[in-house]
Amino acid sequence: MSEVTLFNQNLPSYLKEVELDDVTKAFAGGGGSSKRISLRGSKFRMVVNGKEVVTSNSDSMSIVIVNAAKDISRQFYAKAYSSKEENSAPDCWSGDGSTPDKSIGAPQHGNCMDCPQNIKGSGAGDSRACRHYRRLAVALADDIGGDVYQLQLAAKSIFGKGDLKTMPFDQFAKYVGSQGYNLNTLVTEMRFDEDSDVAKLYFRPIKFLAKEEWEVAKKQGDSPAAKNAVQMTVSQTDGVKKLDNLPTLVSAKVKEKIAEEPKIAEPKKREDKRAEAPPKRDLKAVMGDWAADEE
Asked: Measured between alpha carbons, how far is 169 from 124 in angstroms, rounded to an integer?
């Protein structure tokens, strides 16, 4: 029997609902495109293989968070960062926020804590040249079983404290966890802060997933696309290659700060539990209030 005859036969009933698995997709070339959600210009932009394909006119988007990097990552650019070149490869970066990635040919330092690019004043004004990021893997709420997108959040969308409708990501994640739920059990709304000059997101829970939707979300979280989304930089996702990776000269301003600072371990700031404590209200009650408001 030839392969043409085989595939032209009536398909067995049990195969009619079967989808391509990840192994077959890899060899067949399907599912190989890299997708992410860009926040450039405070707009939700869908980017596929480095090319922007859709720009949303809405200031909010409903997603399901199927996976997330446990560690805060770091990225350093020798040149001034531009949001128009958000997919450019960083000169140095760290996936765990502690040590440079092994792929970096000329790391700025052996560890991130003592790196000169981690000193206040190494960046613009009194900022640090090396910036914090957190990467998520998300699916669109109305297509949970569809594409998985990388979402990279900058510090302003990660840290801070807000009320129940204006929570940055880390506060939001702690709040959901404190209520006894996983992030992949509910639909999350992310919305731009209209008063911010840069792309800054707030997060809030919208509704719980049905059991069937949750099962799909769990499967999506274990997919290669989700794992890549939380591990790869934006430039790696888009397939951008670094043309050169030369060591960066430390500015005179930073050298002075290094010379002035004593070589002792950085003291740990006592945790302010009041500032870190998530909002007290019950998650079910909160979502119930919002549902009533929107009716």
From this structure: 25
HEC per residue, the chain: CCHHHHHHCCCCHHHCCCCCCHHHHHHHCCCCCCEEEECHHHCCEEEECCEEEEECCCCEEEEEEEEECCCCEEEECCCCCCHHHCCCCCCEEECCCCCCCCCCCCCCCCCCCCCHHHCCCCCCCCCCCEEEEEEEEEEECCCCCCCEEEEEEEHHHHCCCCCCCCECHHHHHHHHHHCCCCHHHEEEEEEECCCCCCCCEEEEEEEECCHHHHHHHHHHHCCHHHHHHHHCCHHHHHCCCCCCCCCCCCCHHHHHHHHHCCCCCCCCCCCCHHHHCCCCCCHHHHHHHHHHHHC
Strand partners, 208: 186
Residues 6+ apart with CB under 8 A from 203: 167, 168, 169, 172, 188, 189, 190, 191
Q: pLDDT for 108-123, tens place per residue?
A: 999 999 999 999 888 8
Over the stretch 235-275, which tens digit does the pLDDT of each residue have?
Answer: 888 876 654 444 444 455 555 554 555 554 554 555 555 55
**pLDDT for the residue 9:** 59
Domain extents in the chain? 35-241
Where the chain has pLDDT below 70, the residues are: 1-11, 15-33, 81-86, 240-278, 291-295
What is the pLDDT at residue 103? Answer: 87
